[in-house]
Amino acid sequence: MIVGKPLFTTKEIQTKVRELADRISADYSGKDLLAVGILRGAFMFFSDLVRAIKAPLTIDFIVASSYVKMATLGEVKIHCDIREDISDKDVLLIDDIIDSGITLNQIRERILARRPSSLKICVFLDKKERRMVDVPVDYIGFEIPNEYVVGYGLDYDNKFRNLPYISIFKKKA
Ligand code: IMP
Ligand code: MG
Domain limits at 11? Predict the structure, then answer.
């Protein structure tokens, strides 16, 4: 297993997070923001982002999984759902990466069924060419090529999530 040199360094990540947080702070001033992180992948991005958002907010999480090793299952399992009452909340769904779009699409529909005041989506990475389902994403950190990446919350087999940067990951026989 090889983790290459950073695709995005800690510094580049911090700059991008601040940029996203500034946009979100402006867009949500006067709103009732509920930031919902999708665990486990979004834990690092989520905590950096909410720390940098200046608008008042509340937080919650969804624990979901769709990936086994490097192949997507196309099926999303919800292990733990939002606890907050989301009616009258401006929900911002936050994830580490959008790939096929299957995960975010299913979670989005699940949240919309609970009729929040509004729903927007923020992802740190977008693997655009892999998209199978069209999902409206409002805030994107970086578009990346079709490569498997780890670090900054992103894993391979639940490893490498703690890396403070993002790297392309290659599996060696
Ligand atoms: P999607 O349902 O195909 O959009 O997949 C979304 C989920 O798959 C993300 O939230 C990640 O947890 C995982 N994922 C997709 N691509 C990668 C990657 O390159 N590295 C690590 N996890 C990934
Ligand atoms: Mg994820």
Answer: 2-170
| Cα–Cα dist 81/84, whole Å | 9
Q: pLDDT band at 3, cuts 50/70/90?
A: confident
CA of 140 to the centre of ligand 2 (A): 15
Tokens 């580049």 belong to: 12
Q: Please identify every residue whose CB atom is under 5 Å from ligand 2, which is an ion.
A: 41
Instruction: Identify the CATH number of the domain in which residue 122 sits.
Output: 3.40.50.2020
**Number of compact structural domains in the chain:** 1
Nearest to 60 by CA among 49, 70, 46: 46
pLDDT band of residue 10 (cuts 50, 70, 90) is: very high
Q: Global pTM?
A: 0.94
Judge if the beta carbon of residue 96 lies within 6 A of ligand 1. Answer: yes
